[in-house]
Amino acid sequence: MSQTKKNRITVDIYGVQYVVIGTESPRHIRRVASVVDEKMREINSMNPSLGTNKLAVLTAMNIVNDYLQLKEKVAHLEEELKRVKD
């Protein structure tokens, strides 16, 4: 049975410290936290009266929206590549 090394990193997101445990590199974990922090601050600047819970949900929705759009673009590009190869 293979053991994957887990990294334990403390990150700061929107002024709160979180301990994140994952198999990704510390650099990657910090980058993810930084993107979440930036998105929360961006949304807060447009909606300063939002509570933290609503802000977190809107941030998650925005990030998932970005992810799904990129996933669709990748699928489209893979289809185009397949057509070009055939």
Topology:
Blueprint lengths: L6 E7 L2 E7 L3 H21 L5 H34 L1
Antiparallel strand pairs: 1-2
Task: Give a short synopsis of this structure.
The protein is an alpha+beta fold and 86 residues long. The chain has one domain (7-85). It is 64% helix and 16% strand.
What are the low-pLDDT stretches, counting only 5+ consecutive residues below 50? Answer: none
So how many helices? 2
Coarse structural class? alpha+beta
Largest sheet: 2 strands, antiparallel
The percent of residues in helical segments reads 55-70%
How much of the polypeptide forms β-strand, as a percent range?
15-25%
SSE pattern, N- to C-terminal: EEHH
Trace the largest sheet across and list its strands.
Answer: 1-2
Mass-distribution shape: flat
Number of domains: 1
Distance, first to last CA:
41 Å
Query: How many beta strands in the DSSP annotation?
Result: 2
**Can you give the mean pLDDT?**
95
Using only C-alpha atoms, the radius of gyration works out to 17 Å
